[in-house]
Amino acid sequence: MADTNYDVIIIGTGAGGGTLAKVLAASGKKILILERGSFLPKEKANWNTPQISKDGYRTQEIWYDKQGKPIHPATHYNVGGNTKFYGSALFRLRDRDFETIVHHDGISPEWALKYPDFAPYYHRAEQMYEVHGKRGLDLTEPQENSDYPFPPVTHEPYIQEINDKLKNKGLHPFYLPLGLKLNSKKSSCIRCNTCDGFPCLVDGKADSDINGVRPAIANNNVTLITQAKVLKLHTNPSGTEVSKVEVDILGKRHYFSANIVVVSCGAINSAILLLKSANDKHPNGLANSSDLVGRNYMAHKFGVVVALSSKKNNTIFQKTIGLNDFYWGEKDFNYPMGSIQLLGNISEERIAFDAPFFIPRFIAKTITKHIIGWLLITEDLPNYDNRVRVHQDKIFLEYTHNNNVPFRRLMQRWVRVLKSTNTHTDLHDFSLYSCQTSTIKEVAHQCGTCRFGEDAKTSVLDINCRTHDVNNLYVVDGSFFPSSAAVNPTLTIIANAIRVGEHILDRLK
Fold it and tell me: Which of 141, 268, 451, 476 has fewest C-beta within 10 Å?
């Protein structure tokens, strides 16, 4: 490699790193982006449901749980990270999410910064990621004078009927805030049924590759190296600054240096990199004087309610409804319960994969035309013992579930709501409901492993996401969350990357 010295090195290209790269690119500063994966190939397999259902494009790494049992994580190493596969739901945290919240199982801690500190960056994030939505319908949304940058993604007839039934029950469904390229007649998005969980073959999804990395590397001062796995961060003799970044590029070792180094590998791998970078000055891991690197891991409690109905569902793009009526609880339960949103279409391959072996494939194909899936999210509380650690080069994800009572209550409550909306007028009409919960391998909403704060004893990062212990080292991804709230974290990661980017630009002047 001819160039080894840079103003800024960004490690990772997900929601944090990809966004940060775009924010810094126009500065003219010399920037290096290191990505362990490659650009996803554009191929028919992008929309091949059997391949995606069978872990297509996911890492083949094996992690381990606290009992030492193997985990096959549902995560991706490629330019754009997990945003290439996300469902593009881009929520702001609720304003109360930044305060101390009492939950059934414990406390969701106060953030060092509050909603007004993030509000202008949420606004910019929604513009950068082309968010469609409509304000004033979600009971819990923060007050905002301006509407979304683009109008909502409209409901197809079957979904509109569900929306109307929910409203007739006194509930408050709203258009999901979605980052899609539906902005003109020349828009990329074609409202297909392979969006949620799939990479987009036509670049119609606002992900951190298309909306962050590609615009950044269009600048001559920005260099992207793919298939570049960072192995370790080395410090100067005093341990106060990162002096070298050690990288494996196609089997060969390379070393790079920069005035500022940003780790944006996702909450799990960012913590792992810091732990692997231990040295004499940082014996427990780089920037880990607090012993909090890797701890307080959160990933949300996910549940899926699948409704099977005799009525045929011909919807192509169905991920358009959200509902937060139970976010803060309900009349006889004064604890937060969580959020509800429609899932994308559930394929016959997924049904066949989850069904008993004796269910014929043609039945799975028939069922897929009569079901609709709902994603339920309950806040995952920070716990010191829920952690990511590394031992003998193996990644361990040690996790114990919490907040189970409100999670089960939300699922049961939602099934009752769905049953109440069924007005069967024909003897042959019927509806059935199935509930499933996520497992430890579901890490798409990972956060919390390097929390930010003002006290170096109780946080890894300061309020600008610079590590307390190492002057030129930042972490910009979901690691900084002190709590997980109960909505998708991506927009907050993006907004924070914009915020930290401004700080870094000031520092580089």
Answer: 141
Kindly report each contact of residues 183-192 with a partner whose C-beta sits within 8 Å and lies 24 or more positions away, as own/partner.
183/130, 183/150, 191/153, 191/316, 191/317, 192/47, 192/316, 192/317
Task: Spell out the alpha helix ranges (H) of 256-334.
Answer: 267-276
Q: Please answer whether residues 473 and 261 qualify as being in contact, where contact means their C-beta atoms are separated by less than 8 angstroms.
A: yes
**3-state secondary structure (DSSP) of residue 369:** helix
**Residue 5 has which token pair?**
């010295």
DSSP class of residue 143 equals P
| DSSP secondary structure string for all residues of 320-338 | -EEE-TTTT-BTTB-S---
* CA nearest neighbour of 340 among 318, 328, 324: 324
C-beta of residue 151 within 8 angstroms of C-beta of residue 108: no
Query: Cβ(54)–Cβ(244) under 8 Å?
Result: no
Closest to 188 measured CA to CA, from 92, 88, 76, 91: 88
Residues 195/320, Cβ–Cβ less than 8 Å: no
pLDDT-derived band at 375 (thresholds 50, 70, 90) equals very high
Please state, in angstroms and rounded to a whole number, the distance separating the CA atoms of residues 76 and 197. Answer: 11
Mean pLDDT of 244-260: 97
The string of pLDDT tens digits covering residues 204-214 is: 999 999 999 99
CB atoms within 10 A of CB 152: 20
| Nearest alpha-carbon partner for 261 in 6, 496, 433 | 6
| Tens of pLDDT, residues 444-500 | 999 999 999 999 999 999 999 999 999 999 999 999 999 999 999 999 999 999 999
**Average pLDDT for the chain:** 93
Taking the CA of residue 224 as centre, how many other CA atoms within 13 Å lie in the half-sphere pointing to its CB?
Answer: 25
Residues 297 and 399: their CA atoms lie apart, in Å, by 8
Which class for 62: exposed (0-12), middle (13-18), buried (19 or more C-beta within 10 A)? exposed
